[in-house]
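Record type: ASSEMBLY
Status: queued
Input:
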Amino acid sequence: MLNLHKDHKNLVLLAFSVFVTLSIGVAIMPAYQMEGYEPIPGMKDLTAQERRGLSIYIAEGCVGCHTQQVRNIEMDNTWGDRPSLASDYYYSKQRMDVWRQSPSLLGSERTGPDLTDIGSRQPSKDWHLLHLYNPRLVVEASVMPKYNWMFHISDTSYVEIGDVTLPRSITKMEGGDVIVASRDALDLVAYLKSLQQFSFEDYDPPMAFIPALPKDELTAVGGAKKTIGASLYQKNCAACHQTNGRGVKGAFPPLAGSLIVNNKNPEMLIKIILMGYDAREEYGVMPALGENLSDEDIKAITDHERSSWGNRAPEVPLEMITRLRDSIGNSKTQ
Amino acid sequence: MITKQFIILLIQSSEVTTENWITSPGVIGTIFLIFLIVFLGIFIFIKRLNSYVDLLEKNTKDLTEDEFERRLVNLEEEEVDEILALRQKGFKEDLSKKKTITAKPKNSGFIKKIINPKNPLFDEKSRSTVKIEISKELKEIVIWYLGAAVVWLIFGTLVGQYVGMKFVWPDMDNTPWLSFGRLRPVHTNTVFWGWGSMAMVGLGHYVISRTSNSEIFSYTRSKIAFWLMNAAVFIGNLSLMSGINNGGGEYREYIWPIMALFAIGLIITFFNFYKTVAKRKISEIYISNWFILAALIWTTVLTFIGYFPTYQEGLGETVIQGYYMHQGVGMWFMTFTLGLVYYFLPSSLNKPIYSYSLGVLAFWTQMLFYTLIGTHHFVFSPLPWWLQTVAIVFSAGMFIPVFAGSTNFYMTMRGSWNHISKSYVLPFFLVGVVFYFVGSVQGSFQAFRFTNYLWHFTDFNVAHSHMTMYGIITFLMWACIYTILPKITGNEPPQRFVGAHFWLAFVGLFAYMISLMVGGTLKGLSWIEGNPFIESVILMENFWVWRAVGGSLMFVSHIIFAYNFYLMIRKKKVVEISRKQTLETQIN
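Status: finished
Output:
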């Protein structure tokens, strides 16, 4: 009929048309369907600065190592409270300009951590800037490239109001030199800080994560409290205070041997974790973690901090954390 | 230090076995496939070794005769008399005193010891290249394309090697245009659109012209396409290094004006090939041409869909990305390369393809199944569940074209294993064909939900892409180039260099692949256990070192290949010039 073995015209036409039909079915139609999704009510669009940051994020190829998708499987629970939805990408995945398409943010590899919720996990601007300037200043084992060309060295006397500088001691500046962040660095950090998973209270159970192991096995694996505390510390605190509790000189204070951590009365320590801390000039700002961590989490972390790296202080009573949280909540609402 | 880490590694892996992850079918299948590669390596090695041993024996015998003749011919008359006298004396003494002849071996001959002047391991075989006469234009265009491909291979893998080393030494440089994020797409796009594509189109010219038994429709158009496609790769890389990136999606990093150059090159090439096939002097269209023409059409459609500006807002872009990056491999590289193998494999063995119908089956199933599986790059993502399921189901369906293809190639090679000991062309084909089976099947396993759970986002993906783009495409390109280039230029590269190229590339790829597969698996398990992320970075450290070692071997093999290529195309020119000169001098 078609005589494909001898008629080149029919052969080529058939290969062309079947491929186009399949492509429409498997790519173009679903793409149109996905494009039709609307943003979650209450979600905010990116600001002009954050958009510029997104543009740098693409230009520097950050998507090569960082994903932005929380899959609906257990292990991804680390990266967000709920699996990502199509609507989450409404604002960020729009065509950038005439030349460049909508950014491929979902990514295909996690050489570095997922960034869906990096803005809430790490809200400190100082940390982000230092980390961009040289990742190994804050995360020793990091293999991320330095982005130090987004900063320049300037003399302290030339620094203008509004310029953002990095702590001089940690960046090992001598004389009057100081490192000033460029606009690119600030835009990129603004974008990274804007990456916060939009949370909405009443989401349905079907969005739960698929576990790797059956639930009962998971609890059995849990083991001692101490390891939970260590792993929570690693996730929430170690980026600044480091795994060894020694902090980063000139940027993040040490916890090993710290008077606040070792104080018999842990009130101050708990308050700092709940509300954040910005009392000391020489160190960066500590963000409030009260909303991210439950009372049990805080107990596990503080117990870990108070019993590691040579620290020896008694366990923290859970009631105290609950009481302090309530009193803070009350003072806020009043 | 290293031993300690090794022990830790052992403990870790013994711990995880208790969780039964290893009994998942996808994982078992993959382990089986890796063993297949090991056996392949051993098989080729033993075959080659065997032939060397044979050679050693043969050489020794031949040399005995040669040496005898040489000495005999070169003997002075007096020497001959002297020897003769000695022999006669020996015989007389023996007869008179009734002693055995062998009593005086000193006088029994003049060859005392044979020293083998040649190293049998690097024996040069007699050159038996059958030269194929083709038109000057065709030869020129094939060499143009292949030359460009070699340049891009060296550049692209140099960048790849550099980028791989950055995992071990992240502070190697602080130059913006050499930073990891910008160079990574330079590596992938260069080997994709530069090396692989140029090599395929170049070899495609030869296949289309030979199987249609006529000249390429227009060599001028071939050259225009050549410049357009190379310009796209060149400008594209410069723009990526200066920070102009389309959106970060794999193989879609060149912005549209640059990719348009490449697409126009594709369209020109398609019509050029199509018109050549149309004026063919044989009524049947050879199966290779099905694949080659289809690859060109499909990739043009693909580029168009991939870059079309509507339907790509929000996750629409992600659907297209999954479709595009998978088809870039499946409809362009795999399809085109299969077309080339359907011609070059039988031609290098001097026999027909095992089954023509299996080829036709592979063709249609390739189109049907490959097109539908792009979304398997986004399993568990917010893309529609039905789309993910279709992708997974048809990934399993990919077994059909893969089995059809590899059976066909294997049966064609069957009975010709002795070719392995004669040249490296068949080993290159064999590795490519086995990787075609292994890489594709492993890819399908990886699409299953559990294996995806374990391996997705880890370095295992990088291992898989090198297994396919390198193990399949690159090895088959080399096989085709070594098959055809000596025949059209009349110059064979020395076997020892081809052998060095083969073994460095093979061992390098194996080291690369295994280190990332093991590392990637451990990384996935670490994530499943819920360990802090940075631990998965720390545990990869040694595996990244081994990857860099494997990568270095691969890169060195490419330099050797480039030299072989130079030898294959160079000598001919010298001969031509000298002939011309001698003629000129004679006339003058």
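Annotation: The radius of gyration of chain A is 25 Å.
Annotation: Chain A has two domains: 48-194, 223-329.
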